[in-house]
Each structure stands twice: as structure tokens, then as C-alpha cells.
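Subject: for your reference before the review

Hello V.,

The reviewers asked for a structural picture of the protein, and I figured it would be easier to keep everything in one thread rather than splitting it across files. Below is the amino acid sequence we used in the manuscript, unchanged from the supplementary table.
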Amino acid sequence: MRFQVKRARAPDARGRAAGPRPARRIGLEIRTIVAGGLRILDKIEAAGYDVFNRRPALAGLDWARVLLKAL
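And here is what came back from the structure prediction:
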């Protein structure tokens, strides 16, 4: 699972270096999806990569964090 989390983060790192961020609503939607996915990856790491006994899910403060990162 550790390998998969690392692999899932790689496109985000490449995307940040690719150039300017998309503008307007589509840009906000894309950034929100990416921020949510990265937050889930953070939670998987925090759970010791054990997704079978502790399912990662976003809680209230996580949603606020995702929105702030997307903006």
C-alpha cells in the first residue's frame, strides 16, 4: 500500500510543475478533486497504510482544508 500511495502522489507533483492552473469553475473543480485525493492519501499514511481495518474518510475539518487548498 505504501508503494501505491507514493505512486498516486506522483501525477500531482508533475501537474504542479506543468504550468499555470486552469481558471474559473473547472479549475476550482479540478483543484478540489486533487486536494481531496491528497487528503485521503494523508489519512492512509496516518493509518499505517492499513485500509482494511481503518477506512480513510474525510471528516468536517478535512473538507474545510480541501477547500482552502483548492482556492
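For the response letter, the relevant points are probably these. The chain has a mean pLDDT of 83. Residues 4 and 60 are 26 Å apart (CA to CA).

Happy to draft the paragraph if you're swamped.

O.
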